[in-house]
Design brief:
Blueprint: H1 27-41
Length: 61
Amino acid sequence: MVLIHWDDFFRPLDRPLRALPYAGDDLDRTVRVLARLARHEGVALHLPTLWRREDPWAGLG
């Protein structure tokens, strides 16, 4: 699984990042559900590190 967006995209980028407001998403619950589904399917769930370039396809193939 590749998570592509978790932060509040209504907040300007010159301000500290924060998760989407609860009305848009409950990040804690979403991550718990994704983790449970990943375990069930036997796949790894990796969350990106803030401000670090990631290659989600590295190691595949």
